[in-house]
Amino acid sequence: MTEDIRSSKAIQVFKHKASIDLLISCPPTNSKNREMEAYRYTFDQISNPENFKPQIIKKPARFNDRTDLEKCSGFGISLYEDEQKAVDFYSELSKTISNIKKLVGSHLAKGKLATNDGVCTDVDAQGHFDLHEYENTNLSQKFSIIKAL
Amino acid sequence: MESLDGFISKDFPYKDLKKVSDLIYYEGPMLSHFSNGKDSFLYLWVDNNDSVNRWIVIKIDDNILANYFKKRISLKYILETSNTYILFTDINEKLNNISNVLLPIDKIPESYLPSDESYFNFPLPPIYEHIIANTTYVTDLIENSIHIKIEDKNRRHSSAVKMSNVMEVFNNLKSSLTNFYEVNFKKDFPVTDFDDFDKVLNVVKKEADLLMPNLATGSFCASLSIETVMSAENSNIIKEWRKDIFEKYKREVFNLDYSKPENIVEIERKYDVDERKNIYAPIIDTFKDNNNYTISKTDRTFSEKKTTRIKPISKNVKEKLVPRKIKPLTEQEEQLLQMIAITKKTGGEAKFTKKDIIETIQLEECTLTRTTDTIYFGEDKLFLKEELEYKVHFNRGDYSISYPDFQVDVSSKSFESLKNDFFALIIQRYKYLSKADDTDLAEDEKEIKRKMVELVSMASI
User: What are the residues of chain A with a beta carbon less than 8 Å away from any beta carbon of chain B?
Assistant: First the structure.
């Protein structure tokens, strides 16, 4: 079930509203509320506070240029719509980023998104999309680890 | 975070770098491309702690980037071939380069190194499509090349190489390649396929000319390839054929493992002696040990690590690939060979080459000793109590035997006839003498009879 983003905005406030309001079209206007299963890379404990932090609030944020601060995706949570696509992308990342486990975790978690969790960007060819959470969303309670990567 | 024991630089050494694009992105950059308009760099994320993210900074160019995007080279390869020292920079949240360390390449922590399979399997940002288009032709040539290094054995002038040595290698390779083209073209296309077969073949052979898309002087290194852009005159069939022929040449000639017997058997099966001579003789020459130069295989960056000396092709393999031509023997030489082979008691009519008796063949006159324990002619046979030893004389094309004990003198232009005549005469003499009464014989005839009787154990006449 999807809802119009404007009507949902009237009810819900984004988690990092103050920052994303400074950006142009963040979240993207074609983002939608979705009810769907999703997958995320996590550390080995689902309770690890680093699991569901957007990049912008991580210490230190992984940016190497000022233009990174202007990217809306820095405020979103990366998710995958398909388990295999998530596994495949992690596999490719790990060939290049040797320390990937330290960076994004070593496990795959699965959860079910509700329309009141936030808005989802369009899914790309790799099965990836961003969730821009609403302020009361707690994803750690919706996800559980399904496998080691 | 790993500690880096290298050379510390207070300031980040590169100025005015601007990000061109992120190449790998997941909740932030993981691999990014930076440029200051003149030089380009990759930033690879490798580590972090509570206050900084650590990046490896790798200098690159458009060719490297194009090859990386086309999955021809891995990121690990780019890192290992970029420089002897690698720059690490730690960047904090305020995007300041807090620490800059130069580390020898062999000291990079294992946990920082991309894997051997670190190819670019990610979405290509659209801004790079022009790089791929512009660099494709030369990059393709380099990528498909044979990469060689030539060094003089007598290095009087540091690492400079004599032009004559370079030209010799190039001429040999060109000759081998052109012949390979011709031989394979004739095998793959019947004459009836073209209105003017020879004209088409000549065009194909011209296009087999070697190109040199990459070169490094000092120690002479070159990448050698062939034209990939095909003449409009070529039909589609030939274009298809040409796509693979240089790869086939590399497989069957330049990169062939000559130490594997099965590879040589396959080459012998595919190509006849003349074809092999045309293709492989120049290669054998190039690789041989007593050249004034050494030749090595290397990679597209002429990396020392990837340079290996090409071993000479062994004598046995050389003989199989390009057997020496032996001048046919004359009939007399054949007969003399056979005679000497039997004299050497090698167990029969073994075939010998000219080499075996080269001194003898060059003699105008020689004498050889032969033995026999049976004298036979037609159905007549004399079995002897002991071996009869007789001498065969060869003098300027004439064979002769003289056996005074039996008063037998025979001569012939043919050795085989000579032997037959000799035996025939002995048997004839034996037949007459053994039946004759001694009173009817002259003294010398009696003597011959006595010796024959002494010698013959049994007669089947």
Answer: 54-55, 59-68, 73-74, 76, 78, 89, 92-99, 102-104, 124-126
Give the number of beta-carbon pairs within 8 Å between A and B: 104
Q: Is A96 in contact with B44 (Cβ distance < 8 A)?
A: yes
- In chain A, the residue whose alpha carbon lies closest to the alpha carbon of B29 is A63
Using the beta-carbon criterion (under 8 Å), do A97 and B114 form an inter-chain contact? Answer: yes
Of A54, A64, A76, the CB nearest to B91: A64
- pLDDT of amino acid B228: 64
Query: Which pLDDT belongs to residue B196?
Result: 87
For chain A, the first-to-last Cα distance in angstroms comes to 31
Residues on chain B touching A93 (C-beta within 8 angstroms)? 24, 26, 30
Cα three-residue angle A141-A144-A146, rounded to 5 degrees: 175
Please give the Cα distance from B454 to B461 (Å, whole number): 17
| Sheet of strand A77-80: strand arrangement | A118-120, A128-133, A77-80, A36-42, A107-113, A143-148
pLDDT tens string B235-253: 777 877 887 888 899 999 9
Q: Which among B19, B26, B112 has the least Cβ separation from residue A99? A: B112
Residue B156 is predicted with a pLDDT of 62
Q: What is the mean pLDDT of chain A?
A: 89
pLDDT at B431 over 60: yes
A130's CB contacts (< 8 A; 6+ apart) are A27, A72, A73, A76, A77, A78, A79, A120, A121
- Residue from B116, B129, B122, B108 nearest B30 by CA: B122
**Most confident of the following: A6-15, B107-116, B213-222:** B107-116
ipTM of this complex prediction, to 2 decimal places: 0.91
The pTM is what?
0.55
Whether the pLDDT of residue B350 is over 50: the answer is no
Is the confidence at residue A94, as pLDDT, over 90? yes
* CA atoms of B246 and B147, how far apart (whole Å): 14
Question: At CB < 8 Å, which residues of chain B contact A?
Answer: 18-19, 24-32, 34, 43-48, 50-53, 55, 75, 91-93, 95, 110-115, 117-119, 121-123
Q: Return the pLDDT at B82.
A: 83
The reported pLDDT for the residue numbered B342 is 52
Put simply, the answer to whether A93 touches B92 (Cβ < 8 Å) is no
Residues 6+ apart with CB under 8 A from B329: B337, B354
Q: Long-range contacts: B177-182, Cβ < 8 Å, 24+?
A: B177/B208, B177/B210, B177/B226, B177/B249, B177/B253, B178/B205, B178/B208, B178/B209, B179/B275, B179/B278, B179/B279, B179/B282, B180/B208, B180/B245, B180/B248, B180/B249, B180/B252, B180/B253, B180/B279, B181/B205, B181/B208, B181/B245, B181/B249, B182/B278
Sheet of strand B220-226: strand arrangement: B210-216, B220-226, B146-152, B293-297, B308-309
Minimum distance, in Å, between the CA of residue B36 and any CA atom of chain A: 14
